[in-house]
Amino acid sequence: PSSVSAAFQEYLQHLGLQDFPCGLGSWVRVWGGTAMGYGTGLPLLLLSPCLQNKSCLNACRSPQAEPAGLEEAVPPGEETPEALLELLRDQHSPWALPPDCSPQDRLLREVAVLAPELLRGSRVFQVVKSLRILDKGVEEVDEGLLRFQQLEELILSANHISRVTSAHLPRTLKVLELCCNAVRDLQDLCARPLPELQHLGLGYNQLCGPPQEKHLTVDFWPNLVSLDLSFNSLTDLLGLVSQLSTLQNLRVLVLQGNPLALIPTYRGFLVDSLPKLSILDDIHIWPDERQQFHGLARQPELIRSEARVVVSIGEMKGLPDPKAFQQLKVGSEGPVITYSYCVTYEF
């Protein structure tokens, strides 16, 4: 799928929300010519299709609609929601979700048992609060996302997204993760700022400064607590810090993997420039470290646009053994062989 909406529809089909034991009604599964009625444990002989919905309980099955003593209210041969939920939750059940599935997967499957009417048609968009679409080849963040009126978390990592239009994002978003995509520019993302956003993940993209740094201020992200800009191509540390200092709620910042992180005074300058920061590059900032770098923010002249890299060569293969030349006696007329090597490092 090329769009988020198309990927979501494919995701719903994969969950099988209309298949046993989800969907409306009580279910009977036929094995060969014999069927087992789940919830009753009694074998039944049927001549029906392989999977048959035979329930008359196709009204509401929400927890609010369940009468007291549901076990007695269910006619013989029909399964209770509790019995169907057990099939979803038991790790040995063939209908159980894998252990690494998201909480949203489990929620939707269980809602499909308890209140399947909530997942019919467009109602499903009112249920989803967290949407994770990872590595599905998504290229477009389309306006279909606006149907998710309760969406708080949107994870679109490891796709092929190069442009994100904020007008297509629900205003309720608190977490937006776009790690491992191809985002180059933040202008469209900031055209209509998301007032409730608390985490913005843009690691492993193609952001280049300084044009992008002007979009990282409180004017666009008033409630931002966590920001991941790791492994991009940001180079202007002074310019970036001047913008980030306006984010009064910022507590977690990740900048490792950018060229600016090679500057010798990089960490100390950030620690002193952003006094409210708690975690930098996944390392907690303790009071003694903050005291150690106190005053560094007032010395921008120490920030040089250069870096020093020390390369240690552990092993080189294919070179002549120098021991062979040590066997020649001093003053001997043996041939003198000179070898020259050129090693090039590209950054």
UniProtKB/TrEMBL annotation:
<dbReference type="InterPro" id="IPR032675">
    <property type="entry name" value="LRR_dom_sf"/>
</dbReference>
<keyword id="KW-0677">Repeat</keyword>
<dbReference type="InterPro" id="IPR001611">
    <property type="entry name" value="Leu-rich_rpt"/>
</dbReference>
<dbReference type="Pfam" id="PF13855">
    <property type="entry name" value="LRR_8"/>
</dbReference>
<dbReference type="InterPro" id="IPR050576">
    <property type="entry name" value="Cilia_flagella_integrity"/>
</dbReference>
<protein>
    <submittedName>
        <fullName>LRC43 protein</fullName>
    </submittedName>
</protein>
<keyword id="KW-0433">Leucine-rich repeat</keyword>
